[in-house]
Amino acid sequence: MMKNGFMRFDRLDNADIAPLERINNYKGLHTPLDEDKRREQAARCMNCGVPFCQAGVMLNGMYAGCPLGNLCPEWNELISKGMWNEAADRLLLTSSFPEFTGRVCPALCEKACTNGLDGNAVTVRDNELAVIERAFETGYIKACVPKERTGKQVAVIGSGPSGLACAQMLNRYGHEVTVYEREDLPGGLLMYGIPNMKLEKAIVLRRIRLMEEEGITFRCGSEVGEGISADEIMSGYDAVVLACGSSVPRDIKAEGREADGIYFAVDFLKSATKAVLRSGLAYGDHISAKYKNVVIIGGGDTGNDCVATAIRQGCRSVTQLEMMPKPPAQRTADNPWPEWPKVLKTDYGQEESIAVFGSDPRVYQKTVKRFITDENNRLKAVETVALSFDNGKPEQIKDSEETIPAELVLIAAGFVGAEEKLTSAFGAERTKRGTVMTEAGHYHVSGSLFTAGDMHRGQSLVVWAVKEGRDCAKEVNEYLSGCME
Ligand SMILES: Cc1cc2nc3c(=O)[nH]c(=O)nc-3n(C[C@H](O)[C@H](O)[C@H](O)COP(=O)(O)OP(=O)(O)OC[C@H]3O[C@@H](n4cnc5c(N)ncnc54)[C@H](O)[C@@H]3O)c2cc1C
Ligand code: SF4
User: Fold this and answer.
1) 125 CA to centre of ligand 2 in angstroms
2) Which of 15, 288, 405, 415 could form a disulfide with 246 if both were Cys (CB 3.0 to 4.6 A apart)?
């Protein structure tokens, strides 16, 4: 066994494919390490007495560590010993889809890793991905079909990570699960939000096929509340789980908003993925950034996905407007380890913009004042204005207006909650944040109705959606077994 790896080996991430090479396609962004190197990386885990990476705690209003409670030190040790199947067993004990989180999770575990206190954290996420991909490759992952069925029927509405995790667990408890999805393919934002280069859609479909083999039924192209009514669903199943996401996008109120050429980021990303799946190339019948000056409103992760997609489609220029001030390069004194670090990160799309256009697309403390159109109401530019935060609130700075050419604007300003028509069809009470109301820390709405994921928690992360789906399934199972308090 490799001892004290943290003193012997430096952190080594999966290698990035060079930005100028990877923008030529929509394939994955990294290449994995070989087995020896991976085992060295796993051996960097210190097996701390109380590992924050696994424990998961709220610190200063933010979560530190893995929300799923993944047993990272245990499987790191098993990887370092070359015990791959045992590592997969420990990983799958707490995680439903490590092949998703191993690709898209912002790795809350790593930010809380003890090695990260004065050096570089263990590559927990890459290690997780290596375990699950090896388990798939070697045929160790097999359909887990329940030996007995309870005779209870459950409908899960929405097939994002929360709906999928919930369906997986409910099926394992022996209930018959049907997942309703309004899109043509299942996966929620895993399929039609996160771009293919970050999460290849074949990976999502591999899991769906496995879940079908395990006995779960998927009904795609079925919008509950449209073709099938809420009443039909409620009367046709012993329990119903709403897992429809937080899909209402926050809009921008500015003159000219009705111009042709302004879209919500998720509509753009969905259309781009559909085009990729149809033809392998994003040219053709979709919202296209080709030859256009693109302005993205929102400096966050969704905005970054739009940058990368627009570059692959052949945009002329790309600018990402961020209202907030530029974060510091290093942790500040009031944001110590193991809190989530509020520091500047340059994500893959921004790296690609730097490689293609020679500059980071982000401009800080700027917002849109007005959209400028031609005589046919087609967008041709945006007028921006600078913001100051002297009293904590954004204030427009006088005479700071600038005009940027733009034939395509993508609004990536977050989401304001679940769709009202669906929650009211099910008679579900809403919180002020537009999410479905339950007792704190629970998933039960009323009667046989439950909820999980972004629809319950608000816009969040895949790892949280999986956690909510799994925990919700436990509550549904207690309800179906007559054990719910
Ligand atoms: C562009 C983008 C990129 C992101 N990237 C990351 C990332 O890299 N890492 C990360 O951790 N998180 C990321 N997130 C956040 C993450 O994707 C979400 O937190 C997560 O997908 C929420 O899962 P969910 O199951 O609750 O809902 P969703 O994934 O939103 O799934 C809800 C599903 O319900 C379906 N649905 C809605 N209404 C109905 C109805 N009436 N009938 C039937 N079906 C219905 C929808 O079609 C959808 O498929 C990203 C989000 C966005 C928008
Ligand atoms: S799911 Fe995310 S936070 Fe949890 S171990 Fe994996 S990468 Fe870390």
Assistant:
1) 6
2) 415
